[in-house]
């Protein structure tokens, strides 16, 4: 597959104030006019700029990706053996569906070679195209969005309703979506019917206030994620003023960077998208800088991975068995603690699987079980796999 045909070259002039040897930009292999196209099949991460905004009734623009790319290039190199390819900006199709098909095809090729796609720019409806790439590769995944809206309802923009990519995925009855999780929904943007439907579908949703009180409890969620999307609309307007759906409340920039780092450090996430801001609204590229720093933290985490996925409970771990009475049943919950990293997992039994499902958890989940409380994480997955 010739990916070069899908892309326009990078055209960014960055200011390497840290020096070319210490800056991110010179270390990345870039699709530049007249140069050889980067060897994406051997790269750890491939950056993809996207300019598709028609689904939110805005003019297509590559400026968001361009400004974020420039800001990222000017940051420090995260690793002395960084192997990152910037493929350039994905060519915009004649229709929205053409653009989606292009992104799907490119991501399918990257995932097949274990190159992690990092998508920058565009709007949240790109999630559908990203999910289709996993379908192409016949891989069942967990999808997580960091967003101020739970994701099942559409959004009103300039008096018109946008579609919900998640609804499109659900309505297709795809067998390749195991779980969907929303991190950071805000109640005044999310109707009760939407939350009830999330519960009925056994999906997970975490309210903004609860997440901010204990951000580290999202680490196990991100450790069990394959496809992660971060909407800049999840960030408070002061930190992301050009967000397509701005709000004075939301995550701080530092909190989103911490979530991105958790995801990068986790071995399972295999793609990331940062979208939902419009550069023409972005005074002094404030939001682009925020997106670039979140990407930087994800990449920093990526190069700190310890190789614990898929998790093997027979290697480098301590096993704990806790008897718990709750939810009307007597349950024995098995926990595993890694002796390498100190991270925790727990086993969820199933009559439908050859063996139990091992999921990421936190030390707090173990403490709850010791207090005879069944952790919500365990119970939600028990219902899902025994449904």
Characteristics:
10-stranded mixed β-sheet; 4-stranded antiparallel β-sheet; 30% helix; 16 strands; 387 residues; Arginase, Chain A; single chain; 12 helices; alpha/beta; globular
Q: What is the gyration radius calculated from CA atoms?
A: 21 Å
> Number of folding domains?
2
In terms of quaternary structure, the protein is: single chain
Tally of extended strands? 16
And the CATH topology of the largest domain? Arginase, Chain A
Please, what is the CATH homologous superfamily of the largest domain?
A: Ureohydrolase domain
The CATH architecture classification of the largest domain is 3-Layer(aba) Sandwich
- Beta-strand residue fraction: 15-25%
Distance between the termini: 40 Å
> How do the helices and strands follow one another from N- to C-terminus?
EHEEHEHEHEEEHEHEHHEHEHEEEEHH
Largest sheet: 10 strands, mixed
Helicity range: 25-40%
Global geometry = globular
Sheet/helix structural class? alpha/beta
What's the CATH class label of the largest domain? Alpha Beta
Q: Uncertain segments of ≥5 residues (pLDDT<50)?
A: none
Mean pLDDT across all amino acids: 94
Total helical segments: 12
Helix and strand arrangement:
Blueprint: E1 7-8, H1 24-27, E2 29-30, E3 45-49, H2 63-73, E4 84-90, H3 96-112, E5 116-120, H4 126-136, E6 141-146, E7 155-157, E8 160-162, H5 165-171, E9 177-185, H6 192-200, E10 204-207, H7 208-213, H8 219-223, E11 227-231, H9 253-265, E12 271-275, H10 286-302, E13 317-326, E14 329-338, E15 344-348, E16 357-361, H11 363-370, H12 376-385
Parallel strand pairs: 2-4, 3-4, 3-5, 5-12, 6-9, 6-11, 9-10, 11-12
Antiparallel strand pairs: 1-4, 7-8, 13-14, 14-15, 15-16
